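Sample A.
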Amino acid sequence: MNKPLIASLGLAALVASGQTLAVERITAVHAFPPSLIYTQSFLEFVDKVNERGEGVVQINVRGGPEVIGLSEQPDAVRNGVVDMAYTAASFYAGTVPERDAMVASNTNAIYTRENGGIDLLNQIHQDKMGVYYLGWFDSGVSYNLYTINEPRLDSEGNLSVSGMTLRSNPVYDAFFQDYLGAQPISLPTTDVYSALERNVVNATGWTQIGLKDLNWDRFLNYRIDPDFFSTDMGVIVNLDSWNGLSEEAREILQEVAIEHERASAERFEVLAEEQQAELEADGMQVFRLEGEAGERFSEAAREATWERMRRQMERHPMGLEHYDELIEKFNDL
C-alpha cells in the first residue's frame, strides 16, 4: 500500500473518530469581581486546568456577578445554566446546611481532604443539590469584625453592638444575631463600599485577606480580635455535566483541584499574616477582647454555627445524618 493511501486512510479514521478527539468544554462563573484575590485564585486554578487539559478539557469563564448575580450562581449551576461556579457555600446554605462545617472549622482543606471530610461533603452536595463539590479552595482563612468607630465594651467586657450598624450576609447571621444581639443589614459584597462611604453601615465582617482589594480600608479603622470562622469558598459543578465528562477530563479536573486546595491554603496562610500587618502599618488599630470575653466571643461563633447547622439539618428528610462526623472531620481537635 502506498504512502498517500495510508495517509488518506489515517485522516479518514481521525475524522470518523472526531467525537472522541473533541475538547470537552465547561462554562464557569465566579462570585466576586476579578480584582479580588479570591477570584484571582480561582482564575489560577482555571489556567492550571486549561494547561494540563489541553486537547482534553477546557474551562471557559463567562465572568462574575455582572453575568449572574452571586446569590443566583449556585442555582444556575444546579439548573445547568452554567456548568461550574466558584462561590461561597453560604450562598446555598438552605439547600446544603452541612456547608457550615467549613464555616465553623478550625482547620483547612489539606486536613479535611486527607481525612475524608471533603469527600463526605461532596456526597452530601450530590444527594441534596445535584452538584459535584470539586474542591474547597482558599481555606483556613479566618474572619474579623472591622469598624469605622472605636468599639465599646459592656460592663462584663463583652463587645457592645450599641451604636453599631453592622453589615451582614448569610455566613454571619446566626453569630451576629444570636450572640451579639445585633440587627444587621444584609448587603452583598459589591454594595459594601458605597454603604461604608455613606455611613449606611459602620461595621462589617470580612476575611483576613482582601480588604485592601475592595478598598474598604479607606473607611474601616479598627479590627476586632479574636478572629472567627473560616472561609467556605469552593467550586461546584453541575452533576449531569460532571458525569457527562470523559474519565480523563474528570481526573484532570479533580487532580488539579486537590493540588490547588493545598497550594491556596498554604499561600493564603502566609498572605493573611502579611495583609494584616500591612493594614496595621497603614494605621488600622487592633481592638482585642481580652481573657474570658475573648474566649466567649470565639466559642459563641462556633456554637452559633453548629447550632444553625443542626436546626437546618433537622428540617431535611436526611435529618442529622453525618452531623457528628462532620464536626469530627472539620475540626483538628
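Sample B, a different protein:
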Amino acid sequence: MTTAATDTATDPRVGRRCTSALNSLHSTHYFSPDLGRELGALGVTDPRAVNFAVRAAALGPVGAGAVTAAFYNYKHDLVARHVPAVWETVTPGQALAARTRAVDATLRRLLGEEALASAEMAEAATLALRAAEACSRSARPLYAAHADLPVPEAPHLALWHAATLLREHRGDGHLAALLTAGLDGLEAVVTHTATGKGIAPKWVFTTRGWTREEWDAATDRLRERGLVDGAGELTEEGSALRAEVERETDRLDAAPYAHLGPEGVARLTELATGFVRTALGAGAFPADLLGKG
C-alpha cells in the first residue's frame, strides 16, 4: 500500500513545493517598507541599490560583474549603476545588520507576536535548519556566502535565515539548469512569465533594468527557437523545456529534502505555508506582482 510518506520520499516536486513556501517567506522583506527605512537611514535610498546591497552583502564588497553573474536575470547596466558604488555608502556588514532589523520588523508586522513566539515557529526553524545541513557549497556562490553567516538565535529569524539558505541553494542550481537549457537571463524571465507563474513584465522593467524593446527582442529569439508562438505564449516545445528546467533544478536540489525526510518535509511545508498565508493576508506582496500582463 502506498502511503503519503512514501509519495513524499519518491516525488522530487516535494522539495520544490517546500522551497516555494520558504522562498515566499524570505521574499517578504524585499517588498517591505521596513527594508527601505533601515537602508535609507544609512544613506541607501534607491530601491534597486537597496536590493543589490542586501542580497549581495554576504558576498562581500564585490563588483558589478559578480552580482550580475550571481543574480543572472538583472541587466548588467543596471547593476553597474549601483555596484560597487553602494559599498561607498554602506559596508556589507552594515547592510546585513540592517536587513536583519528589517526582517525582524517585517515578520512581526505580517505574522504577529503570537506567531513569532509559537511552538510552531520554533519547530519550523528547527526543521528548515536541519534540511539546510545537506546543502552543498560547490558552484553555489549565493548559498555558500549565506552559509558562512551566523544563525540568529530568535526562532523567526533562524527560520528566515534557513529559508534564505534553502532558497539560494535551489536558486544557484536553477541557474545551472537555465544555462544548460540555453536560456539567458532575460529569456529565462520571459519564459517563466509565460507560464503564468513569473513576475509581470512591468516589475521586470522596474526591478531588473530591462526595457520593453529588449523584452520583445528576447521574445523574438525564443520564437525563432520554437519556444513561444506569435502571441508570446509557450509552445509545446517551450513548455517541455521549462518542465525540464524545473526537473533538473529539483534533481540538483534534492539533498536537503532527502536529508530532512518525508515527514519532516511535509511538516515544514505545512508550517511554512501557514505562515505565508498569514503574510499574504497582511499584504506582504503587491497585488500585481505575478502574471503575464
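Observation for Sample B: The chain has 17 helices and no strands.
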